[in-house]
Write a structure and sequence with these properties.
This protein is mainly α. It has one domain. It has three helices and no strands. The longest helix is centred in the middle third of the chain and has 83 residues. It is rod-shaped, with a radius of gyration of 44 Å.
């Protein structure tokens, strides 16, 4: 154990002696350490700026995509709303049509005509034109 302590002490002394003999070596080591520190610092800040640019860029892209998705959903919602309204109108038109058939069979032609006209008015609505299904 005594030898290892001497070696450690000598190692320290040897290093100091080495630095004393060659002071430029000390400054070279310091320069290398500073260079690595500088490279590390620059890479950290450069990475942060890249992330910030990327973050901003990605945020802009995200915003654009979100706006596009909102427009798509609005179109779907509007279409669904029209379809639901047209289904209600179609059911109403069929109801009037069936009522007109029933009234006609009962001999109430004037009332049947009014019911069929109501069905026809609903069926001829431009919003319904695409969605009205042919009845049997």
């Amino acid at each position: 154990m005594a030898k290892s302590n001497r070696r450690a002490a000598k190692g320290g002394d040897i290093k100091m002696e080495h630095i004393k003999k060659n002071p430029y070596k000390f400054w070279q080591i310091c320069a290398v350490i500073m260079l690595y520190t500088l490279i590390f610092a620059v890479s950290v800040f450069a990475d942060n700026s890249k992330h910030e640019k990327g973050y901003t860029y990605n945020l802009d892209k995200l915003s654009q995509k979100a706006e596009k998705k909102i427009k798509q959903v609005n179109i779907k919602l509007e279409k669904r709303k029209k379809e639901e309204l047209n289904k209600k109108r179609e059911l109403e038109a069929r109801k009037y049509f069936e009522e007109g058939n029933r009234l006609s069979e009962e001999g109430k032609d004037e009332q049947a005509k009014e019911a069929w006209q109501k069905a026809l008015k609903i069926a001829k609505d431009p919003a319904m034109k695409k969605d009205v299904k042919d009845s049997d």
